[in-house]
Amino acid sequence: MSMREGSLEAPTRHPVAWREADFYDEDALNRELERVFDICHGCRRCVNLCNAFPTLFDLVDESSTGEVDGVARADYGKVVDQCYLCDVCYMTKCPYVPPHEWNVDFPHLMLRAKAVKFRKGEVRRRDRILSSTDALGRLAAIPVVAQTVNFANRNGAARALLQSVLGVDKRRELPPYSPARFRPHASVGERWPVRDGQRTPGKVAIFATCYVNYNEPGIGHDLVAVLAHNELPTVLAEQEACCGMPKLELGDLEGVARLKERNIPLLDRLAGEGYALLAPVPSCALMFKQELPLLFPEDEAVRRVAEAMFDPFEYFMLRHRDGLLKTDFRRELGKVAYHIPCHGRVQNVGQKTREVLQLVPGTQLTTVERCAGHDGTWGVKTEYFEQSMKIGRPVFRQMAQAQPAYISSDCPIAGRHIQQGIRDAGTDLGAERAHPLTLLRMAYGLEEGGR
C-alpha cells in the first residue's frame, strides 16, 4: 500500500460494535488486522511509542516477502499482546484515524483482538485475578491481611513464590494495601453555600477509584483537603465499583458492562443534581469520558456522566480561569519532575496539572510527556517486566536529570514505576515521590495527607 497524506480534519472515533456477531469473527478480524498492519508498516511513525509497533515491524522485516502478507496470522497475537491500550498512537501520532478514508483505530482493533481471545478462553488465571481489583482490594485491605500482604510483597521468598504461581515479576515493586481505606475515613460534607462557576459546577462528587480506596487513600484525602480549602461542597459517590479499565485491557467486555451497570446509575444521579464528577486516577476518568461512551453509544446516562466527569486538575484550571480557584499558596515546592501519564494525555484537555502547579511561586517544573511503560497490570507480569523498564528508561533519565526534590505523576502507579526505575539505574538522588494532589495540598500549607 502506498503512502498518502493523512487527514487534516479533526479526528473522530467510531463506537465499538462489540455486541455484533461479526466483531468476534476470527476471519474478519484477521483481515482487518492485515489491512491495518499494512498501513502501519508503510508509515512506521509510531515505532518509538511502545513495543507493539517494533514487534510488528520485526515480523514484517523478517518475513519471506518483507511485507505483511509474509507474516503468519498466528503471529498477529504477538503484536496484540504488546498493546496495553494507552491510546497515544491514536490520539497523537496516527495520520490515518477517521474521518480519513483508511479508518485506522489501532487501539480499538487491538481491543477487538483481545475480546476475541477472551471469549475463546485464552486468558491466564493470573490475568483474570489481576483485573478483579475490587475483589483483591476488599480482601487485601482488611487490616491484618493488609499487613501480611505488604510484608509478603517485600519478602524475597514470598515474591519468588508469587512469580512461579501467578507470573507476577518478583522484581516489580508493588503498591502496598492500606489497612485504613479511604471511603470509611473520608471526611466530606456540604459545609459552604454553592457558588456557581461560569464553566464548572460549584460542587463536587468524588469517584474514589479502587486504587485510592485500597492502596493510597492519602491521595483521596489530599483531594478532599484541596476542595475544602477552596470552599467547594463535596460528597463521595455513595458507592462505586471498579471503573472497568482493567477488564477492558483484558478484553472482558461483558465484565465492563457489569461494572458500568453498577456505577452509571448513581453517577448519573449526581450529574443530574449538578455535581462535577472527579476521579483522581487518569485511567478511571478516561474510562468514563471516552471508553464507556464508545462501548455504549446509545446509553444517555453514560453520555451525561461523561460530560460531568473531570480530571481534578482540569477542574481546578477551569475554576482558576473563572477566578474561583484560591491561589493563597504558603509553601514553595522547589524542583518538581512531573510526568504526564498516557491516560492523562489522551483526554485532550491539555497539560492542566502542569498549569496548576506552575501557579505555585518558587516551583521549578520539569515536565516529561512520554509513556513510562507500566500500564496498570501489564508491567507487573513476568513476560513484560523487562520491556516495561526499557520503555520507561527515557522517562527515568529525564526525571533524574532534573535533580528534583519531588517525583510526581497523576498516575500513582506510574509514579512508583518511575521511582523504581531511577533507583534501579543508580541515579536516585533521594527525591520524594508525591502525587500532584499531595503537592497542591502542601503548597496551600494544609495539614499533611497520606502518601
Major sheet strand order: 2-1-3-4
Helix vs. strand class: alpha/beta
Fraction in helix = 40-55%
For the largest beta-sheet, the strand count, sense and barrel status come to: 4 strands, parallel
Give me the count of strands: 8
As a whole number of angstroms, the C-alpha radius of gyration is 22 Å
Q: Overall pLDDT, averaged?
A: 89
The ordered string of helix (H) and strand (E) elements is HHHHHHHHHHEHHEHHEHHEHEHHEHEHEH
Task: Explain this structure.
Residues 204-289, 336-412 form the Cysteine-rich domain. This is Fe-S oxidoreductase. Keywords: 4Fe-4S, Iron, Iron-sulfur, Metal-binding, Repeat. There is one protein chain. By secondary structure, the protein is an alpha/beta fold. The protein has three domains: 21-119, no CATH class; 182-319, no CATH class; 327-444, Rossmann fold, CATH 3.40.50. Helices cover 49% and strands 6% of the residues. It is built from 22 helices and eight strands. It has helices at 26-43, 52-61, 76-82, 88-93, 106-119, 125-130, 133-140, 143-153, 156-166, 182-185, 210-214, 217-229, 245-250, 253-272, 282-295, 300-308, 312-321, 342-345, 352-357, 385-401, 412-424, 436-444, and strands spanning 204-206, 234-236, 276-278, 309-310, 334-339, 363-368, 406-409, 432-433. It has a four-stranded parallel sheet, with helices on both faces. It has a four-stranded parallel sheet with strand order 6-5-7-8. It is globular, with a radius of gyration of 22 Å. The N and C termini lie far apart (51 Å). The mean pLDDT is 89.
